[in-house]
Structure formats: C-alpha cells, structure tokens
Amino acid sequence: MKNVDFTLTPDRAHTGSLKWQKYAGQEILPMWVADMDFLSAPPIVDALRDRVDHGVFGYTVPYTEAQNAVLDYLKREHNTLASADQLCWLPGLVQGLNLVCRAVGSAGDAVMVNTPVYPPFLSAPLFADRKRIAVDLKQMEDGRYTFDREGMEAAVTPETKLFLLCNPHNPVGRVFDREELEWLLDFCERHDLWICADEIHCDLLLDDAVKHVPFLSLGERAAQRSILFLSPSKTYNVPGLACAYAVIPNPEIRAAFQKACRGIITEVNCFGYVGLIAAYSHGEAWRQELLPVLQENLGLIESTLAEKLPKVKIPKMEATYLAWLDFRAYDLENPVQFFEERGIGLSNGMDFGAPKGFLRFNFGCSTERVQQGLDLIVAALS
Ligand SMILES: Cc1ncc(COP(=O)(O)O)c(C=O)c1O
Question: What separation in Å is there between the alpha carbon of 55 and the centre of ligand 1?
Fold first, then answer.
C-alpha cells in the first residue's frame, strides 16, 4: 500500500510557505528554494498529531528518545558511532554554518569553501568577520565536479582555519568518493584546518551505483578535526520543524562550538524533536517511495534537455532534488527574470558563486509539475 501519493501537489497557499509566497498572486511556478511539494511521511504527521493532542508545549531539552533516534540512525544508515554528549542540537544548519565560522580562530582568519555552493556557505565567513577563500570546483571529463586540488593548495593561507564541505553537494549534485575525501582530510591536516561536513543531503542519493561516505567514517583522524552537520529536514521535507544537529567528537572543538552557541541557541522546538524521531524511526518506507520519483524526475529533465535543448548543460547529478543547469549558451541578460517573465521561478546561480547563466531547478515535486516546468523552459527558449 502506498504511503503518500507523490503525484499530488498540495495547495500551500496561506501557509506562509517561503517557496510559494515569493510568487503569490503571479502566474509563476516556484521551482527554486530547496523544499519539496510533497505531503510528509504519515508516521511524521501522526507523531506530530499525537504531540499536539498532548496539549502542553513547554521548553523541550534534547530527550533520550531524540538522542537515541539520532544515534541509531547514524549507526544503522551511516556506519557512524557517536554518543549523546557529542551532539549539539540546533534549530537549523544555517545557524550551524554561521556558528562554526565564529567558533574557530578569530576575526581576520579565513574560511575556505568550494564554489558554486549553497549561499550561506558564502555569507557565513563574512558575517563572522572572516575572510572567505572560494575555490571553484572543477569538472571531470564525465561532467561530474570534483575538488580542484592544485587550486586549493595554491589558495590556502596560514590564516585559513576552517574548510566548509558540502557533501552531497548542493548545487552540483556530487557525492564525493572515499579517495576524494581522504585527499581532503590530508589537505586539512597538512594545513591544520577544521572541517565542517554538511551532509544534509546524504539520504537523497539518486544513482544506485553511488554510495555516501560520511566524513566521520574516515576514522579517528577525521573525527579529531571535524564537525558533522545533519538534519532530517531535506530528506523528509520537514525544514519548517526547525530541528538539526551537529556531531562533534573532539571535546575541544565541541567546547568552542558550544561557546559560540551560548546565549544564542536555545532549545529546539518541541515539534522538531518529534518530527526527527518519527522520520528516523519510521520514515524509511516513505523515503523508499520518494527516491524513484526523484530519479524519474531527474531522468525527465535529462532526456528533455538532450532532446529539445541540447545547449543547456546539466552535470551528471548523483544526489539531491536540485538540478544545476547551465544556460550560458543563451547569453541571457537577466536569466532569473527572463524565466520569471515566462512563468517559472528558478534559483539564481550567481547567489551560489557561479557565473551568470547558471540556474537551479528544484525537481522535488510531482513528475507532472516537473514536466510543466520543463515545458515552460522549452517554450521560453524556442
Ligand atoms: C547544504 C545545505 N545545508 C543546509 C541547508 C539548510 O538547512 P536548515 O534548514 O537546517 O538551516 C540547506 C538547505 O537547502 C542545504 O542545502
């Protein structure tokens, strides 16, 4: 029996949806921010309903069931052993990215990132009065992106204290393999950098041949200098429940991170924990139904581009529901506006540190809706 009908597009008007509010009252299909248009997994909805029925919504500290749900999930799904004292709970990973930049080194130090990347990776170092060293990812012969090892070696400075890793990578959809991550660990050791590994998309793999290698699974050397960021919010489409966490095995790094949190990060809201427990404990059947839908959507995008718009390039996407499209061949003056005027709202690649002409297409919605989006793009460029 089906959990949820993934062919539906729930009406999200009047829910304050960031994604839909942007174009409220306009004939523009929102296919931008990373938020899916699917109903949540029934076990999550049921657990939240039970919590509402309880009727008391006081301050809620990380309780045993929530801690165990995370620890069991890490062990079961990612072969990662952690303990409850290594967890730092957060309302979201954007806060985490900003806090980690404040936790290491001091004003004037530098943070390295690879571009293009999820925009808060670019702003967090600057908000913390750190310099940002951005090194472009480079494309391999098969079109997949990888680290520019020479570029990173050339750009790193003695002031660089932190590397922000996005794996799987938003927006290029890459899942870095063990050899690449081993190299990164070696690089960070040689230059004495902390590594913050944001792995929020790790349960959204679209290529059956690809496996996610959790940074912490690289062993003790990795554990000594890394911070793992995770949340069920992308996979289970519950970002509005605002519940995320860091795993920090090294007590010194953990103390520095907790110091940066002091007085700023308070309890996660009571529903956030409930959603996380239900997602990690009972959400798998829903996820198993979601993944083929996302695979089908990606296939539709690839085949439509190949057939109808061969000048639009897409790298081989291994994960996420966010397609990274290169429209540079069309030399559009204002690509986002161009498509908005033709009925579709996409994310601006320039916000990710990419040159003009890249746009991100969110395909976390029904296949019919993806088809509508593609029809609009094809019509716009024909
Ligand atoms: C790589 C990455 N990190 C973090 C986030 C946001 O996380 P949160 O909603 O927990 O702040 C996103 C959202 O798209 C993301 O892609």
Answer: 30
Write the pLDDT tens digit of every residue in 162-202: 999 999 999 999 999 999 999 999 999 999 999 999 999 99
| Residue 334, Cβ density class (10 Å: 0-12 exposed, 13-18 middle, ≥19 buried) | exposed
Residue 316: CA count within 13 A, CB half-sphere: 13
**Token pair belonging to 310:** 């061969």
165 alpha carbon – ligand 1 mean position (Å): 12
Greatest CA separation found in the chain? 58
Q: Whose C-alpha lies nearest to ligand 1, atom 14? A: 34
CB-ligand 1 contact for 166 (6 Å cutoff) = yes
The H or E element that residue 339 is part of is helix 335-340
99-131 residue pLDDT tens: 999 999 999 999 999 999 999 999 999 999 999
45 lines ligand 1 (CB under 6 A): no
Q: What sign results for the dihedral spanned by CA atoms 227, 232, 237, 238?
A: negative
Q: Are 316 and 143 in contact (CB under 8 A)?
A: yes
- 1 C-alpha to ligand 1 centroid (Å): 31
Domain architecture of the chain: domains with CATH: 18-42+284-381 (3.90.1150.10), 57-282 (3.40.640.10)
